Amino acid sequence: MTGTGEEMAGWISTLKKGDLPARHDAEEALLRQGEAAVEPLIQALNEDVDTDFRWYAARVLARIGSPAIRHLIQSLKGGKDQQVRRYLAASLGEMGEAAVQPLIALLSDPEPEIRGFAALALCRVGRPAIQSLSDALDDPDETVRSCAALILWQMGEDGMDALGKAFSPGARDTEKASRDGTGTH
Description:
The structure is a single chain. This protein is an all-alpha fold. The protein has a domain at 98-185: Leucine-rich Repeat Variant (Alpha Horseshoe). It has 12 helices and no strands. It has helices at 5-17, 20-33, 38-47, 51-64, 66-78, 82-94, 100-106, 112-125, 130-136, 142-154, 157-167, 171-180. Helix 7 (100-106) runs antiparallel to helix 8 (112-125). It is elongated and about 60 Å long. The termini are far apart. The mean pLDDT is 89.
């Protein structure tokens, strides 16, 4: 059941200025709205500079999950407020594996800041992003390959292991052949 615009505005207002239990109730009410809450939350993120509110809004967006991804990507690309973009990227990063492929696609964006926010989100995703980032090392776009390598490096030990495997002699051909089923037995 989707709340009315008035109810949505009320829940968002409570996220902004309610006490802790009221904010948690508003968060749950917005979460129940699913995708219907995404655009109003993103709009409120862009209008309000309170970091507590932005944190709550980003948390709700992350918990909505997959239905919010497309909206978050569009807002990340279209937004100009760096702080809002940071919160949007954090939301995407908290979504985990569901957000990996849309974030990988942003690595080819012509705007370096968008690639940077995608990198932050992919680092936040962590291990579930490693295979896709390893695959991106074979992308025809040099920018995507460079970004993937830098993100894997930034991920620490797990990412470095993937980089080491990717750049060991013959490893990428052997791994690709085994995934494609074209390897010899």
